[in-house]
Amino acid sequence: MKIKLFLPVIAFVSTCLVSAQSSNSLWFDKPATNFEESFLMGNGKMGASIFGGIESDKIYLNDLTFWSGGPVGQNTNPDAYKNLPAIREALKKGDYRLAEKFQVRMQGPYSESYQPIGTLQLDFGHQGQTSAYYRELNVNDAISKVRYEEGGVTYTREYFVSNPAKVMVIRLTASKKGALDFGIRFQSPIRHGISFSKNMLNVRGQAPAHVEPDYLGNVPNAVVYAENKGTRFSTLVKIKNLDGSVNISDSCLTVHNGTKALVFVSIATSFNGFDKDPVTEGLNEQKLALNQLNNASRKTFSELKNEHLADFRKFSERVQLELGKTTAPNLPTDQRLKRYAEGLEDKNLEILYFRYGRYLLISSSRTPGVPANLQGLWNPYVRPPWSCNYTVNINVEENYWPAETANLSEMHLPLMQFIKNVSKTGAATAANYYGLNGWTACHNSDIWAMSNPVSGQPMWANWNMGGPWLATHLWEHYAFTLDQSFLEKEAYPLMRGVARFCLDWMVEDSTGRLITSPSTSPENLYKAPDGFQGATMFGGTADLAIIRELLTQTLKASNLLKEDPAFITEIEKALSRMHPYQIGSKGNLQEWYFDWEDADPKHRHQSHLFGLYPGHQITPALEPALANACRKTLEIKGDETTGWSKGWRINLWARLLDGNHAYKMYRELLRYVDPDGVRTNYSNGGGTYPNLCDAHPPFQIDGNFGGTAAVVEMLMQSSDSEIRLLPALPDAWPTGSVSGLCARGGFEVSMTWKNGALQEVVVSAKNDGKTCLVYGNKRFEITLLKGKQITYDLKLLATE
Questions:
Q1: Residue 633 pLDDT class (50, 70, 90 cuts)
Q2: How far apart (Å, rounded) are the C-alpha atoms in residues 495 and 487?
Q3: 86 and 203, same domain (yes or no)
Q4: 143, 332, 401, 529 — which has fewest CB within 10 A?
Q5: Contact indicator for 550, 618 with CB cutoff of 8 Å
Q6: For residue 421, what is the DSSP state?
Q7: Cα–Cα distance for residue pair 68/494, rounded to 1 Å
Q8: Are 525 and 579 part of one and the same domain?
């Protein structure tokens, strides 16, 4: 086989046609009336949900560090581990009911809740008839605009939340001199006070000391305030008027007879770290907010906008995707979704959804030690769905599936730092709840890095593999960056600690194999032969898959660093003794130690398929029997499921190299869902709200990130030793191009394809390295030095 090689490579140029239908912007011809229609904006810490109203524009405000509660106690249930022998003995005897009862004794307090800052309201008082309304969110620039006409005057607004300036900026203009009149008010469900000074509104408040989870329903003292407990916040709103007058009236800042005005919004909290009391050891939030505001207001709008664009575009423009010509008409986003749901073509909507996922991650994950939560950054509720916390049995991990592959490695760092925080509280959890060394985390966490099993049904509350699953992200970050310093100083000590827990947690089964006991499979129930439906078991497939992945990664890290030879030996022995995957009588991959039925065969969780994705233990090439068993499991479960679950299943089908099935489910992920607030309704499966946010339902951001990651998996997959090109390309995308995707080993990949066949691939190296490019039955071994590129023109490849 002859290979024509070009060095150096010319710049990547897309050959696809551009359509009038946008792949970069959401737009509507009317204001939002629900949160699920608003435009979400953020700088990685401050969040804004913009409604774009005419008479009154409502903007929900958030700060990623504003939570109820404070640092967690170290001894929340110090005797919990004493129940462990009784549970294991009950399981040995097959008394699963008794084991389930004992599990409840190994539980502790709930997580805290992510809190809203409040609502900024701009009142315009337009009484006449308006026309030509248009609002837009450009996800490439992270800028939102509103435009309409009233009384012969064109009014415009432009919004962005700047990471460089740390403030939100709103520019308001009127086409007729002196026609701009508006007022600014602030409301909040959080206890607060408001004061005014010249052209500035000053809000100070404090979060509750504790908030009970919303799923407990109407319970007494659900929201508790205490004088010396709770994170403080400061919100400052300043008007910089270029003409007209600014006044204070009726608890409102007003502008009269203006033509142009700027509004600056600055937010800060007293949060100073997961282990610092935000009252006694907190930051000076008032000073921080004022400094941010003063620094920003000294600059012109153009300066602020240009800084913002330069900052955001350096991330948003790294990856470009084109899928060929589209015939879809240019419609408002909600109508576009409804049309798409009818089965009609809209390739640019598919691209927009992918880009929107990257946009959301850039906008919600830039705060050290505080990763994106269940709703990313945006939440208007004091008792939000599932506390808007970190649910670590899938959801927070799924948030970060596209971080490395979609070229947003920097956005992964807040999770890395959060894992370090959890390892510290997790050491107390390992000791108090399990009597073991090392560290772990369970089903829920929060900004305070809570790690204990919470109170609730054992099928979710007692799962303790959150630490091991989180730790796999440490190796993933290294695998893409090859950052040796990070591996040595940050990742490996954390991986070693949670691996220590896993090694000590496993026990022998009746055949001498290593298993976990007790074990649960997240949020799922088995049906025992006697009809009992329970969660507590031993040797669950999900547990062992996660542990196997973690131990394998820890082994690789230890070998690379040439450390811990005794520990290496211990890991190698454990891996060789672990209970293997089992294929059930239906040809499915068993979820339970025994070949038992699920209480709900179509349950949304598929945790036991972890080894297929996001893990790397099962592939069609290396483990065809297990891969087929995973396929059978997915067929049994069916395609109808909730948003985040559908996002996961698309990735699973892509790993099975079934691009058409993955694409079918990708279309279903974009199925239009009417705004429904906080209602939890699994019956109709998931979908997408008008503003392209994932409908779990209700809104959970993980489905967006799962869908974004899945597009990459359809186009490119990688391991430590190879990069698979177009492994699951669907028939619906016969022609296209992509640039900027990242592969393990420190490589960046760009491709063009036509009529379903790869035309050209460009590979560049971020570090020195070797890999193997795989396309169909072709394999190309390559070695690249840092900063170099290589091009394969597959049109010029001779056949054997």
A1: very high
A2: 10
A3: no
A4: 529
A5: no
A6: H
A7: 27
A8: yes
Q: Is residue 36 part of a domain?
A: yes
Neighbouring residues of 109: CB distance < 8 A, sequence distance ≥ 6: 76, 450, 452, 454, 455
Q: Do 100 and 12 share a domain, yes or no?
A: no
Beta bridge partners of residue 527, listed in sequence order:
533, 597
Question: Is the same domain home to 310 and 419?
Answer: no
Looking up residue 451, the CATH number of its domain turns out to be 1.50.10.10
C-alpha to C-alpha distance for 733 and 117, rounded to whole angstroms: 43
CB 126 within 8 A of CB 54: yes
pLDDT digits (tens, 9 = 90+) for 372-421: 999 999 999 999 999 999 999 999 999 999 999 999 999 999 999 999 99
pLDDT band for position 1 (cuts 50, 70, 90):
very low
User: Residue 51 above 60 pLDDT?
Assistant: yes
The 10s digit of each residue's pLDDT in 288-341 is: 999 999 999 999 999 999 999 999 999 999 999 999 999 999 999 999 999 999
Rounded Cα distance, 228 and 694, in Å = 38
Instruction: Identify the band that residue 796 occupies on the pLDDT scale cut at 50, 70 and 90.
Output: low
Reply yes or no: is the peptide bond before residue 698 cis, omega within 30 of 0.
Answer: yes
136 and 85 part of one domain: no
How many CB atoms are located within 10 Å of the residue 33 CB? 12
**Which of 592, 624, 656 is at the close of a domain?**
624
> 770-775 contacts: CB < 8 A, separation 24 or more?
770/745, 771/718, 771/721, 771/722, 771/723, 771/743, 771/745, 771/747, 772/721, 772/722, 772/723, 773/722, 773/723, 773/725, 774/722, 774/723, 774/724, 774/725, 774/727, 775/724, 775/725, 775/726
Question: Which range of residues forms the domain containing residue 186?
Answer: 29-67+113-213+220-317
User: Is residue 337 in a domain?
Assistant: no
Alpha carbon 473 to its chain centroid, in Å, reads 13
Indicate whether 172 and 274 sit together in one domain: yes
Q: How many residues does the chain have?
A: 800
| pTM beyond 0.90 | yes
- Claim to verify: residue 136 and residue 93 sit in the same structural domain: no
Nearest-angstrom CA–CA distance, 452 and 733: 46
- HSE-up (13 A, CA, CB side) for residue 258: 23
- Residue-wise pLDDT for 414-457, tens only, equals 999 999 999 999 999 999 999 999 999 999 999 999 999 999 99
Residue 412 counted as domain residue: yes
Model confidence at 17: pLDDT above 60: no
**What is the DSSP-derived secondary structure letter of residue 406?**
T
The β-bridge relationship of strands 769-775 and 722-725 is: parallel
CA-nearest of 759, 781, 757, 758 to 770 is 781
Query: Do residues 237 and 264 touch, judged by C-beta distance below 8 A?
Result: yes
Kindly state the helix (H) or strand (E) to which residue 714 belongs, with its residue range.
Answer: helix 702-715
Q: Is 331 helix (H, G, I), strand (E, B) or coil?
A: coil
CB 438 within 8 Å of CB 498: yes
CA atoms of 649 and 785, how far apart (whole Å):
36
pLDDT at 139 over 50: yes
